[in-house]
Amino acid sequence: MFAQLSLVAGIVLLLIYNARLKGVFDRILNWTLGVQGIFLTAMAYKSVYEYINAWGLTHKRLYGLAFATLVAGIFVLFFNNYRQQKPKAIFVKKTIIFSGLILLIVNLLNFDYLIYYFKKAKTGQGIDYTYLSTLSPDSLSYKEQFLKLKELSEQNEYPQEGYDNKNPLIIIHKIESLQKKYLRFDLRTMNLLDFWQYQQIKEIDTGKLRAYYENKRPLKIRY
Questions:
Q1: Distance CA 69, CA 121 (A)
Q2: What's this model's pTM, rounded to 2 decimal places?
Q3: Which of 83, 133, 161, 163 is the most buried if burial means most Cβ atoms within 10 Å?
């Protein structure tokens, strides 16, 4: 829902930007549309906050926050420019700079790390380890995920609400892929966070667990 609200707010902003009339009524209409656009953006923030609070962080929710922030910032820039009666070219220039800043922040932030360590994704059964296992090495979570899986697999019985992972092989294959990547060090393919994650999991032996799940040995679920 937050994506749709932000999109509608963006459309409202576009309508205001393209307004050509200069009468008093038109100014009132522009300000009214602006207030509505800001309200929609605020509702988008509220929606994504409620989703995050209930179900944790995901890439979609983080990108939704980024987009809502972009729209809100453009609204502020536009009405500041509109109030001061400056040329639209100045607004466009500031918007490009602001958009570039948002893109830079999004690229610098480690979404995978935030998802795992600040607000894990959830389902009705608890933490969504199926989703968490799809995170990139940037999350620096592979060792912790593997140890959790190993511990519960050795018990051969665990409550579904305590560990919701529909495909444990995902994290196993990711660990093996990273181990294989750095089996022979190549500076050309090195990624700092990749390598940092590799240092944490390079000694892990996944063979036993991989064989266990490839044989599709069912785990007993206690409700």
A1: 22
A2: 0.80
A3: 133
